[in-house]
UniProtKB/TrEMBL annotation:
InterPro entries tied to this protein: ARHD_Rieske_2Fe_2S, Rieske_2Fe-2S, Rieske_2Fe-2S_sf, Ring_hydroxy_dOase_asu_C_dom, Rng_hydr_dOase-A
Domain Rieske: 46-151
Name of the protein: Ring-hydroxylating oxygenase subunit alpha
PROSITE patterns named in the record: RIESKE, RING_HYDROXYL_ALPHA
Organism: Reyranella soli
Cofactor: Fe cation
MF-aspect GO terms: 2 iron, 2 sulfur cluster binding; iron ion binding; oxidoreductase activity
Entry keyword set: 2Fe-2S, Iron, Iron-sulfur, Metal-binding, NAD, Oxidoreductase
Amino acid sequence: MTAPIDEEPAALLAALERGESLPARWYTDPSVTERELLHVFRKSWNYVGPLAELAKAGDYVTGYAGAVPVVVVHNDKGLAGFVNVCRHRRHLVMKGRGNASLMQCGYHAWTYDLAGGLRRAPRSNAEPGFRLEDFPLLPIRVEALGPFVFVNLDPNAPSAKDCYGPVLDIIARSGIDLGTIQLHSRGDWKARANWKAMLENYLECYHCAVAHPGFSAAIDVRPDVYTLASHGWFSSQAGRVRPAALEGKTKVELYDVRGEVAESQYHFLWPNLTININPGFPNLSVDVWLPDGPNATRGFSEQYFGPGVDEGFAEALIAFNKQVAQEDDDLTDAVQQGLAGGLPDRGQFLTKSEQLVIQFQKMIVRAMSGRSAV
């Protein structure tokens, strides 16, 4: 059972209206993280991987909905999602991603079909009253949205399409064809800051001119040009490529920003998926941010490109993204150190520049109080 959060939701929401941030302990207290796993992640859509990796019968991918291991498989009826935990001793059933005709636990060889039904449990025929049909894998909701596949543990949550559907049209306006992009690489990562602190950094570009010299040389981050927009369950940022970058006249060395994509876009999909599009040859990357206790975050990144990408361009853009990510990690590491001391208890936002951060914190408060985040 999770410990209660002392602050009244109405008071927290009123403080956020004034630009006052959440209290410091919301970023350092293990009981808060425990509640987030229950009230945020178990009641939201969680990205698990690209639809292209689930194209054939038997294809599967594994992932997490908060701390809950999940698996999505392509069976004879389409996509199916399950809690990826054996009904016997709760060992993980499937690992990684690939193709399989059956799902077999590596502990005692309990074996499930692709519809989640238990088909074999060694020695169970000697167990009085044991019936295979009583112990299927626990089903969960799964939904594809464009090239992205999500799962949700909450049977009553709105559909992924209802939550995020319009983002597909916004992405299309950037020059990206979501039907043709191809996965280039994937990698896991860890960071030393609370997951909320990291996403709050993502949700504003107020810091970009100070902390991201390369990013700011490529993209016009002036507040009258760089746009912020809220769409309920997701939010978007967009910026135009700088003319000096197109002409190769920046003081900072950049990747080649010339190409079909002239508008950068950065989308946040509640609660923990970000989608990034940079100027140049068609490209898209995603990041998933998962709590790793209150003071750390783990996740994974996927990089996509349009067909026919030059490997030199791909390597240069990936290096650019890694540089920006390292600069952000340095910032959020320092934020987490400041939060750990607990003083001051509240920060003060600039409501005209950090409105998406304020909206995110409001969503957290509403979700943690048992309400809909939107």
